[in-house]
Amino acid sequence: MTSLAVVLEAPTHVGSARLGLMRLDLVPPTDADVVVDIHFSGISTGTERLLYTGRMPPFPGLGYPLVPGYESVGVVRAAGPASGRR
Length: 86
Fold this sequence. Notes:
Layout: E1 2-10, E2 18-25, E3 34-42, H1 47-53, E4 71-79
Antiparallel strand pairs: 1-2, 3-4
């Protein structure tokens, strides 16, 4: 499975921010996952602005490149049997 995503490759303090569209391979969903076709995604003026400018304090597991947008609206396409959703 693949997804078309906006990818921030590096923050602006490294030069000009490298932001672009990329087709990404997704890991197969597990029985506990819900697969959602995203229709809209918001970009936070707080957290993601800090990531864009390179001023985000260190956070375990967070680095570049990254896919911004954690506020999303979409339609559930599939739900694994252990996901708690139908």
